[in-house]
Amino acid sequence: MTECDFLLVGHGIAGAMLAESLRNRGQRVLVYDLPNPNSASNVAAGLMNPVAGKRFALSWQAAALLPAAATAYRALGQRLGLSFFFEALIFKAFGSAQEQQQMLTRSAENPWQGFVQAITTADPALPGVLAPHGGAWLQHGGHVAVAPLLAALAAEGQTAGWLRLAAFDWAALLPTADGRLNYADQVLARHVVCCEGAAAKTNPYFNWLPLTPNQGEVLDVDCPGLSQAQVLNRAAYVVPMGGSRFRVGATYRWPPFAESITDEALTELSSRLAGLTPLPFAVLGQRAGVRPAVYDRRPLLGRHPAHPWLSFCGGYGSKGVMLAPLLSEQMAAHLLHGAPLWPEADLARCVAKFYGY
Ligand SMILES: Cc1cc2nc3c(=O)[nH]c(=O)nc-3n(C[C@H](O)[C@H](O)[C@H](O)COP(=O)(O)OP(=O)(O)OC[C@H]3O[C@@H](n4cnc5c(N)ncnc54)[C@H](O)[C@@H]3O)c2cc1C
Known about the structure:
This protein is an alpha+beta fold and 357 residues long. Among the domains are: 2-42 and 148-212 and 295-355, FAD/NAD(P)-binding domain (3-Layer(bba) Sandwich), CATH 3.50.50.60; 214-291, D-Amino Acid Oxidase, subunit A, domain 2 (D-Amino Acid Oxidase, Chain A, domain 2), CATH 3.30.9. The protein has helices spanning 13-24, 40-43, 62-80, 97-107, 146-160, 263-276, 320-337, 348-355; strands at 2-9, 29-32, 47-48, 51-52, 57-58, 85-93, 116-120, 135-144, 163-164, 173-175, 181-183, 187-194, 214-222, 231-234, 236-240, 245-249, 282-291, 300-303, 310-314.
């Protein structure tokens, strides 16, 4: 029987970063993960974007989340001897003169807390980029190589014995007389945390949470001549992956989900990329995953209302890469010392409405 303080289910970016935060606090952590190359974390482009959407809105808590994420991913890179975080400017190309005007009007209010470095109304003439209406340069963002990061952590976890690559069966979890949890007569844990991503929708303890998963697809393309010096964004994001390769994303699809990748997404993403560059490109791959989105677009963290030995960590929607590092720290401090969570991220906000009391 393996004894641990925290038994985590799921090693996507949510579970991996929480495991890291708990281990850094001296806790004995054991993680169960069913490896899935198409998990949201494994298909994500890893973009950390401070200003998103057509309305150029500042991302929720960007000023706190982005520096914490950059620091955490850099530290992991140092520990594991690889680079996972790539700080990069994001060039948000304006799609029309009207969009350019909207952004200029908004800039008078200065709503972006320093994340907009500059706005240009002229084409910046980036190699291979179509931007006749100019665009906005966003700073302090970048991208993370999420799948390689998770693979490196998983390799470490298997060697050190804190990760088991297996499905977790919630029916085999039983409370013991001394207040711990017995999992399948194999593990004795003090606390269990569900980090299952969108799969938590069918979790017997957390199926009441207002998760509204949506499916997304990305393309990996080879586009020789297109500038690798920044992330590009207009209708699609184009994240440099080294050489002449880029990841282009992403689509949004609400249930019913497609069984796998679709021709519609291939056409949609190809045409969005063609709107950003006149250069020819070859599609090297296409992936689909399911985002653990939430009805109010805020994360879900905290203890189960009826089972204090059980917690949830996730609901990161389309922003897991930026959210996970700081929220994992907050979650670890909450679990160990009762430190408060941000109210907008605390699942307590959903209990009366969705759990029934
Ligand atoms: C196409 C696409 C593009 C995206 N691009 C970006 C981006 O550029 N930037 C960004 O920040 N976010 C992006 N996202 C969103 C991001 O991927 C998610 O916010 C994040 O990965 C969610 O992480 P998670 O750990 O909660 O879930 P997941 O990544 O789904 O991980 C959950 C893990 O738990 C495992 N699991 C579940 N149930 C069990 C069980 N019972 N037993 C064992 N293991 C279990 C799964 O196999 C999986 O490994 C994108 C998502 C998609 C789909």
